[in-house]
Design a protein that fits this description.
The chain has 169 residues and is of the alpha+beta class. The chain contains 4 helices and 10 strands. It is 30% helix and 23% strand.
């Protein structure tokens, strides 16, 4: 093996070990690397911009489907919620997070990519008036896509939002 190849490999390894952010909890899915945050971090971020949350069980246990949990939420998802709140100025109440009981899949609630919001005239008018209608989802829910690529599905009594990114944060 050539000396240059060995040195290059060492520099790459040391560069990865000492790169900014090393030690931050990062998990990888098939499509994207996602930084996961705790329930406490998410609630702090939501409080910062005036987003509320509720659960039918008045709890935050990730393993209880009647709770609303943000444990293992993607940082970009929390930032996306903040972006939506800032852009709309609407009251936002999160009714679903990373707790069990939602549909499975790579881009699921459990994997930190989705939040559910209570329906309200202000947020509904903003989504339908600002984003592009992209047709019906497989389950029949009408969908709108933001300019950043996030998808808002009208599930009747709430908005199911898939955050691929933070929405321009």
């Amino acid at each position: 093996m050539k000396t240059r190849s060995v040195l290059t490999a060492l520099f790459l390894v040391f560069g990865a070990l000492f790169a900014p952010g090393f030690g931050v909890l990062v998990t990888t899915t098939e499509a994207h690397a996602a930084t996961k945050i705790s329930h406490a971090t998410a609630t702090s971020m939501f409080r910062e911009v005036g987003i509320t949350w509720s659960s039918s069980g008045s709890c935050s246990d990730r393993n209880n489907p009647t709770c609303t949990s943000f444990e293992q939420l993607n940082l970009a998802t929390a930032q996306g919620a903040q972006t939506l709140k800032r852009a709309t100025g609407c009251a936002l109440n999160i009714t679903g997070g990373t707790e069990t009981g939602h549909a499975s899949g790579t881009y699921s609630h459990w994997n930190g990519y989705k939040l559910d919001y209570a329906k309200g005239t202000c947020v509904t008018n903003y989504i339908k008036g600002t984003f592009t209608y992209i047709g019906l989802r497989g389950d029949g829910a009408p969908q709108w896509k933001s300019g950043s690529g996030n998808v808002y599905a009208d599930e009747g009594n709430h908005w199911d939002v898939l955050y691929y990114n933070c929405g321009g944060c």
